Amino acid sequence: MPHRNRVDPFGDIHADPARGTLFGNRGLLHRDDGTIVRRHALRRWIYCRLEFKGRHRKLLQPDRYTELFFLDEATALAAGHRPCAECMRERFNEFRAAWNDSAPISAPDLDAALHAERLTPDGTRQATWIASLGDLPDGTMIALGGAPHHSRAGALLPWSFAGYGPPAPADPARQVEVLTPRSTVRALASGFTPAGRSPSSPARSGGGSPGSCPPGR
Predict the structure, then answer these.
(1) How far apart, in whole angstroms, are the C-alpha atoms of residue 63 and residue 159?
(2) CB neighbourhood size of 40 (10 A)
(3) Parallel, antiparallel or unpaired: strands 46-49 and 82-83
(4) From CA 49, how far away is CA 159, in angstroms rounded?
């Protein structure tokens, strides 16, 4: 059985055999037996490379942060995460420059701002907001009929843990429920472009040992 550590664009954690292309953390979310018992434990939600400096870690170890996996960068951003400042330093700098081009924002300030936007006040689910589809930049994730879709090149691609479905035309005037946090959408509009996936490109299978980044970056 796959571990429950796959994250969807709503920020929810599931068990699914497709691991994806990135991993990250929100702190220690599991009990010693590996059971997930909370949605997050930190304000710092990051995503990381699967491979970095030859590091390896065993999944869901007692008293260690919970390894979470994402289909791609757009999914991680929609779920409220930001690039790791160590293993993805260049992406982190690009993200915070797009976030605020007048002065670099610090990682703690970035994390605090994202934390205030991504969750409902009780912290139990992803906060969403409404916008016209035509006002959203490529890389934004939205919900249609309760299902996540990736907005890209004027079309909508249905999301799944295994990848994206065929793109469908989108009405730019349509009001939609936006999953990606507002500030992240502004960063996308300012030029931060998430690494894309082909609709036909399958996700990697589960298992394996991701690289390990310190939990403080």
Answers:
(1) 33
(2) 21
(3) parallel
(4) 21
Return d(Cα 100, Cα 187) in angstroms, integer: 8
- Tell me: the pLDDT tens digits for 129-143? 999 999 999 999 999
CB 209 within 8 A of CB 57: yes
The residues near 84 (Cβ < 8 Å, ≥ 6 apart) are: 24, 46, 47, 48, 49, 92, 213, 217
The alpha-helical segments, DSSP class H, found in 19-106 are: 73-78, 89-99
Give me the amino acid identity at 107: A
* Number of other residues whose CB lies within 10 A of the CB of residue 208: 13
Sorted by where each begins, the domain ranges of the chain are: 4-189
Position 49 pLDDT exceeds 80 = yes
| pTM for this predicted structure | 0.90
Residues with Cβ within 8 Å of 103's Cβ and at least 6 positions away in sequence, in order, are none
Question: For residue range 20-44, what is the model confidence (pLDDT) as tens digits?
Answer: 899 999 999 999 999 999 999 999 9
Alpha carbon distance 32, 41 (integer Å):
15
